[in-house]
Design brief:
Blueprint: H1 2-31, H2 39-50, E1 52-55, E2 58-62, E3 90-94, E4 97-100, H3 106-116, H4 125-128, H5 138-152, E5 156-157, H6 161-168, E6 192-194, E7 201-203, E8 227-232, E9 260-263, E10 283-285, E11 297-298, H7 306-311
Antiparallel strand pairs: 1-4, 2-3, 4-11, 5-11, 6-7, 8-9, 9-10
Length: 313
């Protein structure tokens, strides 16, 4: 008798609970910001996917000392670079992935800042230098790539150091410079200007895709701006790097300055300053540093057609 009455009394409360749950769900859905991509954003997604090159997985010797003579004829006695942070050369095996054939432009980045309501001090560049590479801090470089992922339902991200070097060396081959022929031919495959005396040369930024690509199809891995990596930087990482898909330390090992890695060209101001173009060169800056560019990746092991990738959107 008691149980029967108890069940009868609990029924209204059960119905009330259901109504409350429905009300909460309706409230959440009504306040969620589900906005379809704009026409400009759809064009950006299409362009970003079409600019992707699939890099098949493989193994290579990463770092300085992996080769003392490269495929373009450059030779060295032992190491190309003085710092131990580039050593030892070690075997790395990567899964397949996609990497952008060009760097992210000012206009593309502008669309991100508008969508995320981010203040960008160089905002006028989206008109005056729309097709030139953007320079920004690590947080927003990462943010741009993951935003593309949000729009496309694809795993966009920054590349790892290992992925960048493997692509710069056209599949881990022994190329010291990531140009079309593995050489630095200033004025042809590296654009520059000289001072009035002709003694010093200075890099000039160019529109993305202006330089000849390396054999795998990537432009400006030895020109324009350096590029942020996803890795935390650690100078001794190569000494204990895992072989398979290394991603850098899980957290920064430094307490005072927590650096992020970047790769690619550094400033050029003399005829001897060629180290900044080397495929094996490791560099680092604090995440707040704003003068590094972006080249996004899609972290997918298996190759798909561009049509299949676009269908995921």
């Amino acid at each position: 008798m008691f149980n029967s009455k108890n069940k009868q009394k609990s029924k209204p409360f059960s119905q009330l609970g259901t109504l409350v749950n429905l009300a909460v769900l309706l409230f959440l859905f009504s306040n969620a910001s589900f906005s379809a991509p704009t026409a400009e954003q759809k064009a950006l997604i299409k362009q970003s996917i079409e600019n992707m090159i699939y890099v098949p997985g493989g193994s290579f010797m990463m770092g300085d000392g992996a080769f003392t003579e490269d495929l373009a004829g450059h030779k060295t006695q032992s190491y190309w670079l003085g710092s131990k942070k580039h050593r030892p050369a070690h075997k790395v095996t990567l899964d397949g992935y996609y990497l952008g054939k060009v760097e992210v432009t000012n206009y593309q980045y502008y669309l991100y800042t508008e969508a995320k309501k981010i203040t960008w001090k160089n905002r006028p560049r989206h008109k005056t230098r729309a097709d030139y590479p953007v320079e920004t801090d690590w947080k927003n470089a990462k943010g741009f790539c993951t935003w593309l992922g949000e729009l496309s339902n694809l795993p966009f991200d920054l590349p790892t150091e290992a992925q960048w070097e493997y692509a710069a060396r056209s599949g881990g081959q022994n190329y010291l410079f990531p140009t079309d022929n593995g050489k630095l031919e200033f004025g042809r495959n590296i654009k520059l200007i000289r001072n009035d005396e002709g003694t010093d040369r200075y890099y000039t930024l160019s529109k993305v895709g202006s330089h000849p690509p390396n054999p795998m199809g990537f432009h400006e891995m030895a020109a324009n701006v350096p590029e942020w990596m996803s890795d935390w930087y650690y100078s001794k990482y190569y000494r204990k790097s895992p072989e398979h898909n290394p991603k850098g330390p899980d957290v920064s090992p430094y307490k005072d300055k927590q650096w992020k890695s970047f790769r690619g060209t550094t400033n050029l101001n003399s005829d001897e300053a060629t180290e900044g173009f080397m495929t094996i060169l490791r560099q680092n800056k604090l995440p707040e540093y704003e003068n590094v560019g972006i080249r996004c990746s899609i972290q997918m092991k298996e190759k798909q057609s561009k049509k299949e990738l676009l269908n995921a959107v």
